[in-house]
Write a structure and sequence with these properties.
Blueprint lengths: L13 H15 L3 H13 L29 H15 L5 H15 L19 H7 L7 H10 L4 H8 L6 E3 L22 H10 L10 E3 L11 H7 L6 H8 L5 H12 L1 H16 L22
Antiparallel strand pairs: 1-2
This protein binds protoporphyrin IX containing FE and calcium ion (2 copies).
EC number: 1.11.1.7
Main location: secreted
InterPro entries: Haem_peroxidase (IPR002016), Haem_peroxidase_sf (IPR010255), Peroxidase_pln (IPR000823), Peroxidases_AS (IPR019794), Peroxidases_heam-ligand_BS (IPR019793), Secretory_peroxidase (IPR033905)
Length: 305
């Protein structure tokens, strides 16, 4: 059972310390807000929110396809952890750090805030395979993505509201360039991709050669601001990932996701309320509590006994 007051006696400044470190990181690079939000998501979907994503080691989640050359922000988490070890050693879990840093990243990007529930403990294992099978892919259908959310206890509303996390951050060409050239062997672009955006994206991701790691904003024209513009984009066929656009355009019986996109596009406040609600639900995915797991000293390694 998580609670917002978990550290009120053992580490009363925890929230201030994390806020200060996240602020520093975003001042240096606004994109880090997106990277930290995504890290919490990738943690919670694999073995629950237990900081498994943080563990080093060649069979760890960091080497799974959705994370390799993609997940970022590990050094910022290290800095937060070091500051907290200084403040109240052996007390705050890496899993809770990821949850607070995600909340602060959203707030400092102009989004909503909420009381973060705390008291998670850190897990002892991290496997590539769990991340490969549990994390949604940008090439998944809406039905496949819903199934992966259902598998961790989240619903279709959570799929759409949390996809709104793509209102900030960036994506590499490798994750969407299949939409730009000879889409699914049709000889043309993805028909659900706006032509002028397609032309823009082809500048970033040229057909041949170029830098496969080049990136573009997931929410063109509102990159660093946590707003509902992402949903407005979807209504204009301006979603960057195929999995984004499919929430609105999929003809595979997804009237429900389309209706949710419509309502979040129409109302920023409605989106923000739904996002907060879903973030709390995501942060509750099978947390280790009580004496399960441990409080890591270094987020990258389990404690030696
Ligand atoms: C619904 C299924 C989802 C899919 C298929 C998906 C896929 C992706 C992909 C492919 C990228 C780009 C990665 C790269 O370029 O290497 C990305 C980035 C991102 N995702 Fe998602 N994502 C999903 C859900 C979420 C959720 C639930 C959140 C958080 C609430 C989230 C937050 C982000 C953020 C903030 C970025 C940008 C990260 C950065 O700039 O470092 N995504 N996502
Ligand atoms: Ca995890
Ligand atoms: Ca935005």
């Amino acid at each position: 059972q998580l609670t917002p007051n978990f550290y009120s006696r053992s580490c009363p400044n925890v929230l201030g310390v994390v806020r200060r470190e996240v602020f520093k990181a975003l001042k240096n690079e606004m994109r880090m807000g997106g990277s930290l939000l995504r890290l919490h998501f990738h943690d919670c979907f694999v073995n629950g929110c237990d900081a498994s994503v943080m563990l080093d080691g060649s069979d760890g989640e960091k080497f799974a396809l959705p994370n390799l050359n993609s997940a970022r922000g590990f050094e910022v988490v290290d800095a937060i952890k070091a500051a907290l070890e200084n403040e109240c050693n052996g007390t705050v879990s890496c899993a809770d750090i990821l949850a607070i840093a995600a909340r602060d990243s959203v707030l400092l990007s102009g989004g909503p805030t909420w009381p973060v529930l705390l008291g998670r403990r850190d897990g002892l294992v991290s496997n590539q395979s769990g991340a490969n099978s549990g994390l949604p892919s940008p090439f998944d259908s809406v039905d496949q993505i819903i199934a992966k959310f259902n598998a961790v206890g989240l619903n279709t509303t959570d799929v759409v509201s949390l996809s709104g996390g793509h209102t900030i951050g960036r994506a590499r060409c490798a994750t969407f360039s299949n939409r730009l050239f000879n889409f699914s062997g049709t000889g043309a672009d993805d028909p659900t991709l706006d032509q002028s955006l397609a032309a823009q994206l082809r500048q970033v991701c040229p057909a041949s050669g170029g830098d496969g790691n080049a990136t573009t904003a997931l929410d063109p024209n509102s990159t660093d601001v946590f707003d509902n513009h992402y949903f407005v984009n979807l209504k204009r066929n301006r979603g960057v990932l195929s999995s984004d656009q499919a929430l609105y355009s999929s003809d595979a019986g997804q009237a429900e996701t389309k209706a949710l996109v419509e309502s979040f596009a129409a109302s920023g406040p409605l989106f923000k309320i739904a996002f907060v609600n879903s973030m709390i639900r995501m942060g509750n995915i099978v947390p280790l509590t009580g004496s399960a797991g441990e409080i890591r000293t270094n987020c990258r390694t389990i404690n030696s006994s």
